[in-house]
Design a protein that fits this description.
Alpha-lytic protease prodomain-like, disordered N terminus
Length: about 210
């Protein structure tokens, strides 16, 4: 057997002497992107939790629940990349969509409860800062996921990136809630919470389309 034929046979069997298999490279890159995004969102959600405990804002709660759900989507994505399976990655994308939908349902439920039993949020300056932290954290996570999703041609990561980018704008609604409540419109907090819920449902649909056609 010639040297060329032998080399061809090795390639045909998936060996890459002196090189790293492309699927392994993709797996590592995906895990790195997922890990960094998880770290950013976990820190964001932790900071927002401390402010919610003091303020009791339902608009912040809606954003907080969604950010925790967003961070949790890192786990099925990480498993999919570790397995180096296109099918697992597709299922991970569906898990992302489900997590977004569940967070919308919980946020909407809490907003309706607060409409029935109104309560004025406290520490409005801290509430506004929590909204700004949510915006920054989600924007950074979105950049990490979208760049990796384009580089790795991953619909699941792209859906998660779109999700986080939209979440960044949702977090701005928390700042709006603090401002409007400061003007004396306490009912605005649960109403903004409901508005955030509607936006999250729209994100659910958009992410579903990305995963389904990916």
């Amino acid at each position: 057997m010639s040297h060329h034929a032998e080399a061809h046979q090795h390639v045909g069997h998936g060996h890459s002497h002196g090189l790293v298999d492309p699927s392994i490279k993709r797996s590592r890159a995906g895990l790195v992107a997922v890990g960094w995004a998880l770290l950013v969102l976990a820190l964001t959600a932790a900071a927002q939790t401390a402010v919610f405990a003091a303020s009791g804002s339902v608009a912040l709660l809606a954003d907080l629940i969604h950010n925790f759900g967003d961070a949790a989507t890192a786990f099925p994505l990480a498993i999919a990349f570790a397995l180096r399976s296109a099918r697992a990655e597709r299922w991970a994308g569906l898990a992302v969509v489900l997590a977004i939908f569940v967070s919308a349902c919980v946020a909407g439920y809490e907003a309706i409860l607060r409409l029935v039993d109104p309560r004025e949020p406290e520490y409005l300056a801290a509430l506004a800062v929590a909204g700004a932290v949510g915006f920054a954290g989600n924007w950074i996570a979105a950049g990490i996921r979208t760049r990796a999703g384009r580089r790795l041609d991953s619909p699941a990561l792209l859906a998660d990136g779109d999700h986080a980018r939209a979440d960044a704008y949702v977090s701005l609604a928390v700042i709006a809630s603090a401002a409007v409540v400061a003007l004396g419109f306490d009912i605005a907090d649960p109403l903004i919470g409901l508005a955030i819920t509607v936006v999250i449902l729209r994100i659910t649909w958009h992410s579903w389309q990305t995963v389904r056609h990916g």
